[in-house]
Amino acid sequence: DAGVIQSPRHEVTEMGQEVTLRCKPISGHNSLFWYRQTMMRGLELLIYFNNNVPIDDSGMPEDRFSAKMPNASFSTLKIQPSEPRDSAVYFCASSLRGGTGNTIYFGEGSWLTVV
Amino acid sequence: DQQVKQNSPSLSVQEGRISILNCDYTNSMFDYFLWYKKYPAEGPTFLISISSIKDKNEDGRFTVFLNKSAKHLSLHIVPSQPGDSAVYFCAAIIQGAQKLVFGQGTRLTINP
């Protein structure tokens, strides 16, 4: 079975450039989460969607970050303009709504480096 | 404000011995707790969980203990094996909600 698929796996970009990270959730899952991993704060929830609708974006650090889910099988996280402090690993995860955390499945992550 | 804290960034244990990873939380509304394991270049995967109505849950070599009064939980791995070397994340959630709150992670290294 295909898990959560993220692309790109690695991205190196210059400060000021736009970055778009992509995610394909597990088929049949109706909740999608974007997390960011840093050394200092661990895994932080940025935003999550239920049935393609954004439910809570309180974790999005600032207006430079935006996320969309145009359909049940695709989501994007965009950073515009990017800054060096955005360098981190960004994880997408999906689940069936109603799960208790043990049913959340993570992708392999997108490693972003902004120079 | 970090609602879930793992104060040890790293831990090194001899193969065959017990590994104990610790986690503290501040939000008394959390009622379900989980441990995730993460290998390099992979996403986190669920390991074991515990509900707040219990104080212990065991699954093979892995046991999670919960002390609600101290707002503390721990993961015990006995005996530790080289394949256990990974980053371990503690997480907490309010059941019925969807926001899984993670700690900073602890890197566990099992030495042969």
What's the helix and strand layout?
The complex is a heterodimer of chains A (115) and B (112).
Chain A: E1 5-7, E2 10-13, E3 19-24, E4 31-38, E5 42-50, E6 53-56, E7 65-71, E8 74-79, E9 88-95, E10 105-106, E11 110-114
Chain B: E1 4-5, E2 10-14, E3 19-25, E4 32-38, E5 45-51, E6 56-59, E7 62-67, E8 72-77, E9 86-93, E10 101-102, E11 106-111
Parallel strand pairs in B: 2-11
Antiparallel strand pairs in B: 1-3, 3-8, 4-5, 4-9, 6-7, 7-8, 9-10, 9-11
Largest interface: A-B, 29 and 24 residues
Largest sheet of chain B: 6 strands, mixed
Number of E-type strands of chain A = 11
Beta-strand level of the residues of chain B, as a percent range?
over 45%
Secondary-structure element series of chain A: EEEEEEEEEEE
Number of strands of chain B: 11
> Radius of gyration of chain B, rounded?
13 Å
The helix count of chain A comes to: 0
The fraction of residues in strands of chain A falls at: over 45%
Oligomer category? heterodimer
Low-confidence sequence ranges of chain B: none
In N-to-C order, the SSE pattern of chain B is EEEEEEEEEEE
Radius of gyration of chain A: 13 Å
Helix content estimate of chain A: under 10%
Instruction: Tell me roughly what share of residues is in helical segments of chain B.
Output: under 10%
- Counted by DSSP, the helix tally of chain B is 0
Calculate the terminal CA-CA distance of chain A, rounded to whole Å. 36 Å
What does this structure look like?
The complex is a heterodimer of chains A (115) and B (112). Chain A contains no helices and 11 strands. Chain A has 115 residues and is mainly β. In chain A, strands 2, 4, 5, 6, 9, 10 and 11 form a 7-stranded mixed β-sheet that branches. Chain A has a 4-stranded antiparallel β-sheet with strand order 1-3-8-7, with no helix packed on it. In chain A, strand 7 (65-71) and strand 8 form a beta hairpin. Chain A is globular, with a radius of gyration of 13 Å. The mean pLDDT of chain A is 93. By secondary structure, chain B is an all-beta fold. Chain B has no helices and 11 strands. Chain B has strands spanning 4-5, 10-14, 19-25, 32-38, 45-51, 56-59, 62-67, 72-77, 86-93, 101-102, 106-111. In chain B, a hairpin with a 6-residue loop joins strand 4 (32-38) and strand 5 (45-51). The mean pLDDT of chain B is 95. The interface between A and B is medium-sized, with 29 and 24 residues.
